[in-house]
Amino acid sequence: MIKDLTNSQSERQSKRSSDLRAKFVEYQDLQLAMCLKLEAIADSLPNIFDKDLWLKSSQSISPVLEKAHSFEELELFPTLLRQKGAELRFADVLKRLESEHHNDEDYAENVAQAIGNYVKHNDHNKAESLSWMLRGFFESIRRHIAFEREHILPFLEGSTKQP
Ligand SMILES: [Fe+2]
User: Fold this and answer.
1) Contact 28, 152 (CB under 8 A)
2) Among residues of the chain, what percentage have pLDDT more than 90?
3) What's this model's pTM, rounded to 2 decimal places?
4) Average pLDDT over residues 49-53
5) Ligand 1 centroid vs 17 CA: distance in angstroms?
6) How far is the CA of 4 from the centre of ligand 1 (A)?
7) Quick one: CA dihedral 89, 66, 38, 47, positive or negative?
8) Is 123 left (phi over 0), alpha (psi -120 to 50) or beta?
9) How many angstroms separate the alpha carbon of residue 45 from the centre of ligand 1?
10) Which domains does the chain have, with CATH numbers?
């Protein structure tokens, strides 16, 4: 009886971990797709090929990041920290990732505003600084996600590579 309860508890934990993994990857993929759109904008500067698309992309940056960060900070990270023996292993790393989230969210607002201004004024003198800003932003997001995939993802059920 006790063994059955332990098994079903372990199955539930395993399913929860696998669900978290799927959600984590889904949010990361959304952020990577956003990076691709921003890279396309940076590549096309100083020209603007589609004002509406640029504005739509700029307006989606903060919501995409905030949803992903909320999931990580409110659901994923607390679960990882509850894993047996995880405190020491994860606490510092997760704190660092949270701090990167806050920096990226601040940066996102500036990026969105800069795209909006460029579309409005079409000032070619600002093309280089906008390109520099966009590249700095999406490269930071890509580095953050690459780190998470290397160091966090393997601790979730369903990963082929276990730590
Ligand atoms: Fe993150």
Assistant:
1) no
2) 69
3) 0.88
4) 90
5) 17
6) 36
7) negative
8) beta
9) 28
10) 2-155 (1.20.120)
